[in-house]
Specification:
- The radius of gyration is 23 Å and the shape is elongated.
- The protein contains 13 helices and 9 strands.
- The chain has a 9-stranded mixed sheet with strand order 1-9-8-7-6-5-2-3-4, with helices on both faces.
- By secondary structure, it is an alpha/beta fold.
- It starts with a strand and ends with a helix.
């Protein structure tokens, strides 16, 4: 795995397919860095701001992909990528396709196979950022697939943020991205549940957030320790909170008493209870990982 910080590079031409919020942010950053950009969007007129900023607008996808050797797709969901590109696959032959459309790992691998069958160099990308972050080091974009494509365009890709090559398995960038988002959304769900608990007695969510944020930030420091335990595979090492001590049924009952939906917490409690029932109650909380990992 290699990581490259955002740095300026010599301009190269890019075709951008998709002028939604993210596509526009990506194209705008390229234009500001001096790269010639040709843009196409399914909805006519959506690219007006980019044209005003110096982009060329293509009337058709076929016209767009012939303008430059590097084609970037930032479309809406996986089906739209093949719907857009399959009809112009002859014009794509010999070019490089960087797909920044949100996909699952399986979908990314399917696109990579499709590209290989049609002599298209394929690089899958996953953007861990909002449009406003594009161009900053805080914007993270993960790539996987063609190592040659990543190496050839590494400088250009770095204009968007901090880029990381995750390997030649085209699905890996998506997997890392979605796993990180999973952690984020489940953290948010925990905050929403806690806010609903104290909100049942009138505490404003703003007050709960102010009191909870420092605690959650401190707890995030435990990730590294849990990761060590998981990678070591020994859940009996000293210094861990046991699964028995981690019983969450009292929090579930408190939620029920307050009329609060405890389904998110109940799911965690079910994972803890499964390991306790299997005889692992004295082992550390990190053993919950064993209830989640694949058994291939």
């Amino acid at each position: 795995m290699t990581t490259t910080p955002a740095t300026p590079h010599a301009p190269a031409g890019v075709t951008m397919l998709g002028a939604g919020a993210m596509g526009t942010a990506l194209a705008t950053r390229l234009l500001r860095a001096g790269h010639p950009v040709t843009v196409w969007n399914r909805t006519p007129g959506r690219s007006a701001a980019l044209v005003d900023a110096g982009a060329a607008e293509a009337a058709t996808v076929a016209e767009a992909v012939t303008h430059h050797d590097l084609v970037v797709a930032c479309l809406f969901r996986f089906p739209s990528v093949l719907e857009t590109l399959d009809p112009v696959v002859a014009q794509l032959r010999g070019r490089t396709l960087v797909n920044l459309t949100t996909t699952t790992p399986g979908e990314a691998r399917e696109l990579a196979s499709w590209a290989e069958a049609h002599d298209v160099e394929y690089l899958d990308g996953a953007v861990l950022a909002v449009p406003e972050m594009i161009g900053s080091r805080e914007a993270q974009i993960f790539y996987s697939g063609s190592r040659a494509a990543y190496g050839a365009h590494e400088g250009l890709l770095a204009t968007w943020g901090t880029s990381t090559f995750e390997g030649t398995d085209a699905g890996m960038a998506s997997l890392v991205d979605l796993a990180m988002l999973s952690a984020m959304y489940q953290m948010f769900a925990g905050f929403f549940h806690g806010a609903a608990m104290v909100g049942s007695e009138g505490m404003p969510a703003a007050e709960f957030a102010a009191r909870t944020s420092p605690f959650i930030s401190a707890m995030a420091g435990a990730f590294a320790h849990y990761a060590q335990v998981i990678d070591g595979g020994d859940y009996t090492v000293p210094g861990q909170q046991s699964l028995e001590f981690s019983d969450l049924s009292h929090i579930v009952r408190a939620s029920d008493e307050q009329g609060v939906n405890a389904s998110t917490l109940a799911a965690v409690q079910a994972l803890v209870a499964r390991q306790v029932a299997a005889g692992h109650g004295k082992e550390g909380l990190a053993r919950v990982y064993e209830s989640l990992r694949p058994r291939w």
